[in-house]
Amino acid sequence: MRNFSRYGGKNRPRTHTALRWAVFAAALGCAIGARPALADDDNTNPGYDRPGLGFTPVVLRPGDVTIEQGLPTWTRDNLGGGQMQSQYTTDSLIRVGLGGPFEAQLGTSPFNAIHTTGPGLDTWGQGHGDTILALKFAPNPSDAKVTGGFLGSVEFTDGAREVRNDQRQYLLGFDLNWQVTDNDGVGAYLEQTRQGSDGQTTLAVNESHVLNKATVGYVELAQVHETGERSGTEAGTGVAWQVNRRVQLDGGVRARIAGHAELWMVSLGVSVFLGR
User: Fold this and answer.
1) Which of the residue ranges 24-28, 51-55, 93-97 would you say has the lowest mean pLDDT?
2) Dist. CA 17–CA 194, nearest whole Å
3) At 32, which helix (H) or strand (E)?
4) Helix, strand and coil in the chain, % to nearest 5
5) What residues pair up with 104 in beta bridges, in sequence order?
6) Is 145 left (phi over 0), alpha (psi -120 to 50) or beta?
7) Do 44 and 103 touch, CB atoms closer than 8 A?
8) Which one-letter DSSP state was computed for residue 61?
9) For residue 174, how many other CB atoms are within 10 A of its CB?
10) Using the 8-state DSSP alphabet, how is residue 130 labeled?
11) Which long-range contacts (C-beta less than 8 Å, at least 24 apart) are formed by 180-184?
């Protein structure tokens, strides 16, 4: 039994506008139109990039598509000075196989809301988030015992003023997975992000276990280091349920356990495989 689920997809995309969604839909329509008819007797499913930290180090076959949607994701962080911030985001991701070891990704979120509280402060900001374009390189076949891949992305500053980044953010990640047995896998994820003069490095390890023929559970531990010598440790857990070979539901939670890191992250999501 292959570990069909992959929880990995870091804090995903934010974005939307009528024009962007038109391009989004056109690209998806072209990708679907270009691929052969669906074959339900083919059990190949390379896995999804959500939930959790990292991504699946396997690319989709040419013309295959996945749609991965948060329902939503909630995070809470301590900004210092008595200020707390909560964010709600309906993060979206479309992945398209390009052929060979490459895969293109387009990230967006139709809606974000940020609630900031503190001494004499109680504000809300909302709107669509920034657009993310990404390219994945993963040369290994999906049934290999050991798989590895790189993901590079750029996040633009085209979201609503209240929720967008101040500067473009660049990301480079490397994910390595080892399917130890039919039911158990271990992995490591290294990520570097850069936004102007600020940066963050994340190193995460994870372990997954097949609970039954349709459900996989996972645990993960991450060390986060930010520019300015601030660092912290997070731990998370979650589950992915493959409803059938084309639809997966997932849920996860992550929390700070030491140092300077995000206090909480809770996510629910659904992923759909549109492939041969």
Assistant:
1) 24-28
2) 25
3) helix 18-34
4) 5, 60, 35
5) 96, 135
6) alpha
7) no
8) P
9) 17
10) -
11) 182/1, 182/2, 182/210, 183/1, 183/3, 183/209, 183/210, 184/208, 184/209, 184/210
pLDDT digits (tens, 9 = 90+) for 207-246: 999 999 999 999 999 999 988 778 999 999 999 999 998 9
Q: What residues does 272 pair with on adjacent strands? A: 67, 247
Token couple for 41: 């007797």
What pTM was estimated for this model as a whole? 0.82
Q: Cβ(268)–Cβ(250) under 8 Å?
A: yes
Place of tokens 């949607």: 69
Give the three-class secondary structure for 137. Answer: strand
Mark residue 209 as left, alpha or beta (left: phi above 0; alpha: psi -120 to 50; beta: remaining): beta
Pull the structure tokens for residue 202. Answer: 């994340």
Residue 206: helix, strand or coil by DSSP? strand
Nearest one of 169, 157, 159, 78 to 112, comparing CA atoms: 159
Six-digit token string for 153 = 């992305």
Q: Mind listing the domains of the chain with CATH numbers?
A: 18-274 (2.40.160.40)
